[in-house]
C-alpha cells in the first residue's frame, strides 16, 4: 500500500500509518503478525522497552532482508529509566536489543518525575544522529510547557490516547499551534464493541464500502494524526492499511467527532499504574 508521510518539525518524513506492537507477546504470534505486516508494506513500527518485544521486532526486521533505512522504528524510555545517565543507558540497551545503530524515533513514555534530565540525554543523542526524531507520549499541555521552558529542542511529537470517544480536541489544537505532531495510541479505541457497533459509524462505513475500523483510521488521517493500530490478525492487518483510497466528507468528519464521550483507557498521565 502507498503510505502517506508527515513531516516532523526538523523535516524528517514519518509514515503516517504505523504498526503498534503492544501486547503481542507470544513469539509465534508476533513473528506471524510482523512478517505479514512487513509483507504488505508496513515499515513504521512502534515498540517500547516495557513491551518486552524489541528483540523479536529487530529479528523480524532483519529477517525481511529489507534495508534497515527503509524502516521507521520507534521505542520509548520507561518510567524507571528517567534521568540523564539512566536514559543514556536505556537507549543503548534498546538499540542493542533491536540490533540497530540508530532509532528513528525515541519517546518519553510518560511524564514521570525527572523528565527534564531524561530529555537532556535525548537531545544529545539526537544531535549525535543516533535518534532522528525525539518526542514524548502521554504529555498534557502543562508537561509540554514545562519541558519547552527548560530545554533547548522542543519535542517533535506527542503520542497520546486518541479515538472518536476521546478525540483530544484541546491538546490537538495546542500541538498544531506548536508544530508538534500528534500521534494516536489506541486509534481504534482498543477495538471496543460499543464504538464498532455505533450505527452512525456503520452507516458511514457502508456508504464507502469500507469497515468501521477503516473509517475510524481515515478520520485520524484527515485530522493529520499519525496512527499505530495494533492487530495480530492478518486479515485485519491488511484491512487497516486499506485507508488511502477514500475520503470522508466534512459532515462525516463532524459526525465522528461528535462521538466524543470522554471515555479513556489511560488513567494517570504520569504513568504509574496505567496501561502502557
Ligand atoms: P488499538 O486502538 O490499536 O486497538 C487494538 C485492538 O483493536 C486489537 O487488539 C483488536 O482487538 C482491535 N482491532 C484491530 N484492528 C481491527 C479491525 N480492523 N477491526 C476490528 N477490530 C480491530 O489499541 P492499542 O493496541 O492499545 O494501541 C495501538 C498501539 O499504540 C499499541 O500497540 C502500542 O504500540 C501503542 N500504545 C502506546 C501507549 C502509550 O502510552 N504510549 C499506550 C497504549 C498503546
From TrEMBL:
One Pfam family matching this protein: Aldo_ket_red
NADP-dependent oxidoreductase domain boundaries: 17-260
The entry's keywords: NADP, Oxidoreductase
Family to which this protein belongs: Belongs to the aldo/keto reductase family.
Full protein name: Aldo/keto reductase
